[in-house]
Specification:
Blueprint: H1 8-16, H2 41-53, E1 57-59, E2 67-69, H3 71-79, H4 89-103, H5 112-129, H6 133-136, H7 139-148, H8 153-156, H9 164-182, H10 201-211, H11 216-223, H12 227-239, H13 251-263, H14 269-275, H15 282-292
Antiparallel strand pairs: 1-2
């Protein structure tokens, strides 16, 4: 009915009768709209991938990989031959990976005295500037700071919740708070300091869904989260070792961004973004820079 004008995710949304901005009124008048609501989204995605494997659909090349029925797929439809499929083999494996991620311990406070000192600094700073403490740094950010114990500006950029503005404004103070505790202790340059994940429960759920094969868009829809939030969750997972960089960006993208970062003197992602002509999203830039500073 759509004549190859949609991708797999939108086709699944149509079948399940989803109601969001990507679906226009004309989509909701199609005869197939909502007819597949009896199956979960992941099952339809699995079936779509199986149809592609069997050659029943043709997929257009990037940047718009839309799907359309192939000649082989049309032949099967016209034959009206019954088809029985076993439950997708990958579904059980993805659910297992999801449970494994969720079963790991959430966060352990590795340096409680440093965490207390960071909270005291946050309270004093918030009172001085007249802002609520949580608007400066979240508890999760302070916990990541205390566990990772950064000793350089480059390492501060690896801490989830610390963007360029906060590092420029508060970075020197944060390093001064950390310094007495870091002397003679393990820092983030030692991998053993990062054996425990410093990610929130919400981030862990996003990581579990991503590990099960879901896209950023499907996680946004399923969890009713913004793109920035989901991407931040995945960056946390990358920095803490739950994800590999090649799960988030292609090798070609990594090499291009890495070359641009190595040529510039500042840590400004805006400069990198402009140098690369805006071709790569900030999410990819953050991912590559974070791994470079590991």
């Amino acid at each position: 009915e759509l004549d190859g004008r949609v991708g797999l995710n939108l086709a699944v949304d149509l079948l399940r009768g989803a109601d969001h901005a990507r679906l226009r009124d004309e989509h909701k008048t199609l005869s197939t709209y909502g007819k597949g609501a009896f199956l979960p989204r992941t099952a339809w995605l699995d079936l779509g991938r199986e149809a592609r494997r069997r050659g029943w659909v043709d997929v257009a090349p990037p940047p718009y990989p839309t799907w359309s029925l192939s000649a082989k797929g049309m032949h099967w439809l016209e034959s009206k031959e019954a088809l029985w499929l076993e439950p997708p083999a990958g579904q059980a494996a993805r659910e297992t990976r999801r449970k494994e991620v969720l079963s790991k311990p959430l966060v352990e406070v590795l340096h409680p005295e440093l965490l207390t000192a960071l909270k005291a600094y946050r309270s004093a700073t918030a009172q001085r500037v007249g802002l609520p403490p949580y608007t400066l740094f979240s508890d999760q950010t302070l916990l990541a700071l205390s566990n990772q114990m950064p000793t350089t500006t480059a390492q501060l950029y690896r801490v989830s919740g610390l963007g360029e503005a906060k590092v420029k404004k508060y970075g020197a103070d944060l390093l001064a708070v950390v310094a007495p505790f870091a002397r003679g202790k393990t820092t983030t340059d030692d991998p053993s300091a990062l054996t425990l994940p410093a990610v929130s429960r919400s981030a862990r759920e996003s990581l579990a869904l991503f590990s099960s094969g879901q896209t950023i868009e499907s996680i946004m829809q399923q969890r009713a989260l913004s793109r920035n939030t989901v991407e931040d969750h995945l960056l946390q997972g990358l920095y803490d070792g739950h994800l590999r960089l090649n799960q988030l960006v292609s090798t070609d993208t990594e090499l291009t961004i890495r070359a641009a970062l190595e040529q510039q003197k500042s840590h400004s992602l805006k400069e990198t973004f402009e140098t690369l002509g805006g071709r790569y999203p900030y999410f990819a830039l953050k991912a590559v820079r974070g791994k470079m500073e590991t």
